[in-house]
Amino acid sequence: MSASSQHPVPAQPTAQATAPAGGPRLRAVLEGIPAYAPGRPAAEGPGSFKLSSNENPYPPLPGVLESAVAAAGSLNRYPDMACSGLLAALSEHFAVPVSHLAVGTGSAGVAQQLLQATSGPGDEVMYAWRSFEAYPIITQVSGATSVRVPLTASEEHDLPAMADAVTERTRLIFVCNPNNPTGTAIRRAELERFLDRVPSDVLVVLDEAYREFVRDGEVPDGVELYRERPNVCVLRTFSKAYGLAGLRVGFAVAHEPVAAALRKTAVPFGVSQIAQDAAVASLGAEAALLERVDTLVAERARVTAGLAERGWTVPRSQGNFVWLRLGEDAAAFATACEREGVTVRPFAGEGVRVTVAEPEANDVLLRVAAAFREGR
Question: How far is CA 75 from the centre of its chain?
Fold first, then answer.
């Protein structure tokens, strides 16, 4: 795919919108902003399962709930704005300087801080599409222009096309690895070739929200790539493998100028003390974490194999979910699942993302998939 085939999403007007008489004037850039669509909750009652959000189906790791409850006793106090305890724990865990770390309200919150620090009207932000649906939202909010580069036919990042699409206006590139919602992951050699082509003044953000679920040894750890490349920033989260989705705590690993900019753009006291203490406790429960992740990875393999046996083509996922390219049947499949007590995440006209959950939920999904396939 050539660079000429890439079409930036036009920037929204930067002037202020006309307000109704007596009303406030709001930024015109907010008009027509795409809405983030969260996964639908499961239906009430036994036998209902939520597979529509990439959450961990298991409760917090041992010792984490106790830390959170203890922290709740000081709700009348502001949290540690510097997140000093969490940063110290992350620094030790990843062997990086504290000055190379920044914490925010989930990796999505940190991603929005990155936009605030790098991009505005007239700038371009690039990402594959389809990918994490927050990218176009936070780009439009910043006033920058989205450049969406289509995935390949095998649901993977088209890194050569992305490199071709870089211009003098490119300020930031999101690389979701593994990619949400397709689950595909980029291997080291391909990613390093891409990074070699990106100008050193363009920030490349390796969004690794699902890193703990990767089992392909050729998929690199972004933290290792960051060490040698000042324009690489790595995003991680406690929402997925660690099971703290409800507490909203994520972090970035980046060289000092980028990390410092992230700390400047952070919402004061944005990460609660409950979240900070729970994250520290989670880092200390690594043995239990690995056991739990191994269980989900085994279920991912079982679900993938079960779908393949029933005639489905499923990309090789390295996340805690699988992707079904259904096209116009996406909504119908989601409805069929919901009738049987499981909610999944449809993307209209494209496909359905299904989170890997407990075995009982996965069994229902496989039954519905088999019946749906036969009915088609």
Answer: 29
